[in-house]
Each structure stands twice: as structure tokens, then as C-alpha cells.
Amino acid sequence: xxxxxxxxxxxxxxxxxxxxxxxxxxxxxxxxxxxxxxxxxxxxxxxxxxxxxxxxxxxxxxxxxxxxxxxxxxxxxxxxxxxxxxxxxxxxxxxxxxxxxxxxxxxxxxxxxxxxxxxxxxxxxxxxxxxxxxxxxxxxxxxxxxxxxxxxxxxxxxxxxxxxxxxxxxxxxxxxxxxxxxxxxxxxxxxxxxxxxxxxxxxxxxxxxxxxxxxxxxxxxxxxxxxxxxxxxxxxxxxxxxxxxxxxxxxxxxxxxxxxxxxxxxxxxxxxxxxxxxxxxxxxxxxxxxxxxxxxxxxxxxxxxxxxxxxxxxxxxxxxxxxxxxxxxxxxxxxxxxxxxxxxxxxxxxxxxxxxxxxxxxxxxxxxxxxxxxxxxxxxxxxxxxxxxxxxxxxxxxxxxxxxxxxxxxxxxxxxxxxxxxxxxxx
Amino acid sequence: xxxxxxxxxxxxxxxxxxxxxxxxxxxxxxxxxxxxxxxxxxxxxxxxxxxxxxxxxxxxxxxxxxxxxxxxxxxxxxxxxxxxxxxxxxxxxxxxxxxxxxxxxxxxxxxxxxxxxxxxxxxxxxxxxxxxxxxxxxxxxxxxxxxxxxxxxxxxxxxxxxxxxxxxxxxxxxxxxxxxxxxxxxxxxxxxxxxxxxxxxxxxxxxxxxxxxxxxxxxxxxxxxxxxxxxxxxxxxxxxxxxxxxxxxxxxxxxxxxxxxxxxxxxxxxxxxxxxxxxxxxxxxxxxxxxxxxxxxxxxxxxxxxxxxxxxxxxxxxxxxxxxxxxxxxxxxxxxxxxxxxxxxxxxxxxxxxxxxxxxxxxxxxxxxxxxxxxxxxxxxxxxxxxxxxxxxxxxxxxxxxxxxxxxxxxxxxxxxxxxxxxxxxx
Lengths: 427, 427
Hints:
By secondary structure, chain A is α+β, with helices and mostly antiparallel strands. The first copy, chain A, has 2 domains: 3-201 and 332-426, 3-Layer(aba) Sandwich (Aminopeptidase), CATH 3.40.630.10; 206-326, Alpha-Beta Plaits. Chain A has helices spanning 3-27, 36-48, 60-63, 131-150, 172-179, 227-247, 295-307, 309-312, 314-318, 340-353, 368-375, 399-417; strands at residues 52-57, 80-86, 95-100, 121-122, 125-127, 153-155, 159-164, 186-189, 197-201, 203-212, 263-270, 280-289, 322-330, 333-334, 359-362, 379-381, 396-398, 419-422. A 6-stranded mixed β-sheet of chain A has the order 1-2-7-3-8-16, with helices on both faces. In chain A, β4 (121-122) and β5 form a beta hairpin. The two termini of chain A are 13 Å apart. The mean pLDDT of chain A is 96.
């Protein structure tokens, strides 16, 4: 009997227990600042399973000094990370399993069929905020390790199970885990990919561009310069930069994607009065950061493109646009195309599903970006949730996918961390 | 001695009295809803000078049913018009002198050198909110009539001196005077023109255009349609309409004006998140209305232009833009090029100043538009204030201009209303 069969059999027998555990996790309304309940569950579980458990509150003061710090909250009181380490027997490769427990707000109750934190199971679906993003994926990863334990297997390499906070608002949980010294030879992030493998994860940064005009009365608008009209020139330059950046991309992971790393302008506001020529408009957007690209390089590219407008339009020489970087940003993450951990994951998928997995570059970043950028840890994203569900009302996860992902992850772990010994008496 | 000389001489002798009167007027902070103080002064003065005085509070209920009603306030309690009629001896042409007493808010105190309602005189300038817009002009008109009275002259035609409220927020004061039955053969509006004569006054209306897109995540922006990008197409169509409308204008009054009747887009807001494709943007603007043009015609022209976008861009067929008319509007006003009242004013100006006046089409509307549109009263705008001062901190009026305008207005009145008799014993 192969390990895949044994793991599947373990899951088959214990499926209802894990469904209940996922229900309990989803029933915790773990929005930013309210993660204690879910971390209690995770801490207890990891302790019971023999992990060395480390639980600590994030140090806002210390973290906020970090170059890559990014948060929308003014303090982290009560926001605690839980990391469980399952030491290997030695001489194996280590693996970080990193998943966040914070969820985005549930929005309007009326848009939800069930209570947003019901964890209700209907057929094959488990409903609730965070089910897909990403408590379902976290359960897959935990179950993968527990199944390996249940089979009496000791691994050579260490497993570092990171249950982090603050992913949705900038990654301070993972940053704190990095700063605490946790590292590994590879990382798996079970964010919702709908069982697709993302060896490259697009980063992103938010920007504002302030565009200036010259005020005048609307009845003599020819005496002014409309900042609203100037937005078009700026937007065109942004789209041109987007095109130039995307033309350079040649990984097969980007094939068929019309704009692999887009620059989106999402918000606009300007002018103060219908009958005045607007002298100021601000646009806000999201610039995709290419896997492997430095954030500062990406920033410089946008700034240079917009500074160059002064050469084409003398107005911009007189009143240059101003670029401001603000709010959230996610670092791009990646794993080399021929990295053995990626190979293990692909092979595990193929062995279990009897088909090749879909490999793509993700249109969004994860905490894996911090691991790659700060500690050079190759990171791959693969999980059972569906991106299209994340952040929406009536979020649910397909339970079959949770258990399928667990089998694939277990097989991947066995390949990567390697089996040190098997105690056949355990089952 | 000509009448011009006699009027000038009267003003010369009584200049300090009128400066004090204007000071008192400017010292009244007559913002919308607070016009009682200034109307007390006007009422008293008109009564003393033998006008039949009519003072009444605006009837919000009745006015709000009117097609041309437009107000930013929910009631007019305490907002009273004052109209003084100086009956002529008969068989003469009548004249409305219409000026508003409401002023726009003074804004930030720190931006003013003197108290905004000081009425401080420094050299030739009288400072204060409303000095130029338009208490200075009102004083010129009042003084013109008082000078004629002081010379012992009885006119053939009636003078209807209208001291109205609510001009700054939609013209309900003048609308109320019209509804009360006041009419005349011509009207002079001493709004700030800097001694230029405006035989045509541009009207204006405010509009919103709601532009729709299709939401998507910024990382896959190609799955959405950006409402911000669609704004450009809408704005281009608006500018094209502006050009078409202005190409039709052929009055010499528009000569040298690059865009006599502009359509200004003054405000923009849309999108909710930097990393989402924006599915909605609203622009707000001011559409100039051509003198002689019906408001409904102008509205239909913009609506048709934007509806036609669906033919050029299938997105607009799927998600048509919506046009909304809101907020303020001013009707266009005018007087025929060869109208004898205009001729009287031009001639009076020339006789006094020994030079031709500048005639132009104004880039903004006045309450004269209501008089022209509702009662067919030819209206001309001419006053001592400076447009560039209106609504700004440190507003002032040039006192010499106030008294010069008064002489020109007196001479115009004598020409238009005609002298019935002169009682030489008066002076």
C-alpha cells in the first residue's frame, strides 16, 4: 500500500473529526485584532500532536521599524502568532507550512444566507468567512502532517507550521515569524488556488498619483488647465509602462495571460466644484510587482515614466505629477522552475490525481513573498480554496478539495522531508 | 450745464454720505438667511426717498412649485425681498434696477486682512464681503435715482428698484419678484462687470454623468472594464459638443473669446479600492447655456451626445452613461443688439467717459436671465465691481467706479425713462 493510499485511508476514517475541527475554526470570527480564539484552537491542537509550540504577541514597536513593515492598524495588542515545530530526525530538508488565520470583515449580514461564522455544512460545502481564505487550506496542511504522524512516520526534515496573523493587512504576522528566526529550505502556502500550483506569485504595491491643473471659472475654462483632462495623459503613460513591463516576461507560466503583471488604476477623486476648472486630481492604483523584481526597482520605473511626461507635455514640466506609495503592498514570491520541492509537489499531485497539475503565475501575492524576499526561501502556493470565493459573501470551501489537498501535501512532505523511520505498530 | 454735469456735481457734494451708506450695507453680513439687516437699510432709504415700498418674505411652498425654482436651502424664513417703485408721470418707459443683497460666505477669517464685514476704506477702496458682488453696484443704481430726484426731475417712466435675496443660490428672490407681478420695459443689473457692458449673459446648468464599468481584481484587470478609462471617451464627447455649439455662435460679442459658452467638467470621483477595477465614476460639470437658448434644448443636446456614444463603443450600449441635472442653474439673459435701452446705456457711457464702452457676452448668468426668460424683459448687466474680486477674500470695490457708474446710470435712466418735468427750485 502506497503512502498516498495510507494517507487517504486515514483521512477517510477521520473525515468527520476534521470537518468538525474546520467548523470550529471557521466559527471563530478572527478579523484583525480578534484572532485569539482561532489561535487557541491551533495552539491546543499542535501541542496535543507533539509540536514544540511558540505563541507570542506581535511587537508593533519593533516591527514598525522594518523596511518591509506594512500595516493598517496602529497596534497589535492581542494579535498573536502560533508556530509549531515538529523536529525531524535530522539530515532532511525543512519545510514551512504558512497560513494566515485573520479574515477580512464579513460585510453586510443580509448578503449572507447563513450566519457569516456558522461553519454550516451543506452537502460538500462548508460555509463561512475565512472558509476558503484560508482556514480550509490551513486544515489541509495540518491534516497532512497529522496523517503522516498517524502512520507512525518520523521525518528527517523539520516541519514549521506557521499560523500567522495580519496577512490581509500587510504581512506583519509572517514578518514577525521571520524576525523570530524561523526559516526553512522551502515553503508551502495553502492560499486558495483552486488546486492550481503557483510557482510565481505577483507582488503588488499601492500608489497615488497627484495630478495638478490650474483653477479658473468654468465660464472661462480656457483660462485654466483641467487636471481631469490631464489624467488621461497620465493613465496612458501608466498603461504604456504596463505594456513595456509585460513584454519582457517570458516564463511559460505567463502564457495565455493577456496582462500577467498589470497596473490597475482603481480610484479617482478631484476637483471641488462643478463650475470650476479642477486644479487637482488624485488617482489610486495597484502596481503589480514581477516575481524576482525588487520593490524599489518597480517604484522607480513608475516614477521615471511619469517624470518623463514633462518632455511630451510642457504642462507637466510646470506642474509635475507626484507619486506617493501608500497602504498595502505584497512582495512577489517564487520558486525556481526546476526546484526539487516544486518537483515533489507536481509529482505528488500527479501520483494522486493521475493528471498533470495546472501551473500558473498568480495574479496576487501572499506572505510567501516575504519569505522569498527576506530569507531567500523558495515559496509555492497551492491550496483547496477558490479565489473567486475569497472576500465575498457566502464564502464556502469544497470539503473534497480540502481532503484531496491534504493527501497531495502529505505526499509532497514525504518526498521533500523524507521518511526517517516508520513505526508500524502505530496503526 | 448738462445732466451729466449736474449729477456729477451732486455726487461730488454728497460723496462721503454715500460712502458711509455703502459701508453700512457692507457691514451687514447678509449671507443666505441673514438678509434682514441690509433690507432694513434699503427699506428705510427707499421710504425716505418717496418710493412705494413693498417688503415680503419669500413663500418657499409656492416658489418651489415653479419650473425655474432652484434653491440650496430648505426654507426662506426671514428672507425678505424689498421692492421700491418710483412711479413716473406716465407715458414713459419703465426700468427695473435689480440687485441682490445676499453675499457668499466669507470663508476663512485668516485670509482676510480686515474683518470680512468691516467696510474699511483704504484710499480708493472699500473692503468687505459683498462690496463688489454686489452692494457697490446696488449703491450706484440707488444713487443714480436719488441724484435725479435731487435735481428736481420727475421721470415719465417708472423705476422699479428691486433689492432681492437668494441670487447666489438660484434666483428665488427675483423669481418671487416676478411672481408678485413686477415687470418693466427693460432691466439693468449692476453686477460686477468692471464697467463693461454685457448685453448677453451666459446661462449655466450643473450636471452629473454617471459612467459605469465592470469590476474585477486589479491583478486580473483584463477581466473588467475600467470606468476611469471610459471617462476619457465621455469627456471627449463633451468637448466635441462644446465645439459644435460654439461654432454656431456668430455675434460680434463673442469675438476673440476662444470658447464663448464652455462646458466645464469640474469634479470627478469613482472607484472604491486601488486594487479593484472601478465599476463606477461620476463627473460633475457646468454646461453653459447660450443666450436665447432654452434650458431643455441645452439639456437634450448633452443627453443626445452621450447617448450616441453607444454607436461608437459597444460598452456604452451595454452600460449607458446616465445624465443627471442637479444643483444650481442660471438662465441666460440678453437684450437685442439694437435695443434703445442698450443704446441709451452706450451713449451715456460715451458722453461721460468720452470713449466707447467695451461690450461683451458675459461668461456667467445673473438674475436678468429670469427676467428675460419669464417675462421677456430685455436685460443688460453693467456695474462697477470687478468679477475677479467676487467670492474671494479681501473683496473690495473701487469707489471711483461706484460713483462713475452712478453718473452713467443716471444719464441712462434720463434717456430711457425720459424727463417729465424739472423743478428748478429743488437745488
